[in-house]
Amino acid sequence: MRALFTRLRRFLRSPRTITVELVGVGTLSALTAAVPQQGSSSAGSFPVFEHPTLARLIQLLGLDRILHGIPFLALLLLSMGSLLLVVVELARRAIRELPVPEPEAVLRRAQFRESFAIGESAAKPRVEMSGRFGALGLPVFHLGLLALMAAGALRALYGAEAGDRFYEGERIDPATSFSQQSQGALARPFRLSEPLTLGSFRVERHPKGGLSAISTPVAPASAGAERRLAINDPLRVEDAVLYVVPRIGLAAFVVFTPAQGPERREVAFLVPAGAHLEADMPLGGEAALRLSALAGERSLLPDSLELRLIRGGVLAYAGVFSPGDSVALPDGGRLALADLRQWIDIEAHRDPSVGLAMAGLALVILGIAGTFLVTRVERAVLVEKTAQGHRVTVALRAQRFAPLYEEAFKAFLARVRAEMAAGAEVADR
User: Fold this and answer.
1) SS3 label, residue 428
2) Closest of 192, 228, 232 to residue 350, by C-alpha
3) Which of 79, 194, 264, 355 is the most buried (most CB within 10 A)?
4) Predicted pLDDT of residue 277
5) Are 345 and 244 in contact (CB under 8 A)?
């Protein structure tokens, strides 16, 4: 058993293993930033998914679910093992350094030392120490990193992300909303605890047209008070948090009645494409509807839309519609535009690792402060008897930043000289 632990320890602390951990975590983190992850409301619309072969490869390799994938979790666990050994070793060394050392030990490792002779003296060797707990800075820092990695593993196993597109006035149903889902192996799918209804969107733009703020009131199904959801102002619902993504578009409510068949009521989400808003909506069979509108400077709500009906790749009808307009199609069907509203993307997270992550971050900050702001300094006075009297050696050892303590050593040396001179005068009397 001991031999197995020794081999495991040697493997976890080997430079090759640590290099694999660093490169692996760095590579996966970069891929997470480059490829939208499942649960993001914009994952399916990202340009990389427009190429079918590339999209299939991404899904096959699991690059769209890295944070909940086995490779990411395995790298985290491997890194935690290596970091745990570092924490144990640093803690043991810090505990060994906590007691006050002997003067001879300080003298052997001191960066500053000076000796002088005196006559008779009753002074005894001593050690003065400040910043004793500065030695705990590094183990506390690494313990914080370990807590952050544990939080990452907890999120990978139990976290859940979801996202979807919602229009003004829509009721967010816990059972059917959030079509984009991603969760850990041990997590349940994301569901709201109760329905929520969105109010009218308030959109603010910069003078050049860019989005500066999006907000909407949110009313719960219960008798609770209405709350607000906005960019940089998330909404907490029990153990979940809802976020507004800084992206907005136009929702067109279309009613299509074919010459033969049931009426179809669809919502098309027009997305910004340059100066226009565009969307393609399949209608079944070989029919599809192409919608286009010119985006306004201060609002996304235009007065009208251009609708084009495509059948078998051929334009069957084109016209400009305002809300409430309806037209009979040449084949006997009917096309109507019922309403226009704005839409926003909402993403939701359920993350049980937040508390542990915050604790880890606090430990990292505390460890950095302890490492760089609290320096262990040992000051030693060694008195040795000689044939002519006594020889006094004064030494100072700083755990780090030794050149900064030259003046402190000179002040300590002057104080010891004064003490020894006063003690010699008393002895002479």
Assistant:
1) helix
2) 192
3) 79
4) 86
5) yes
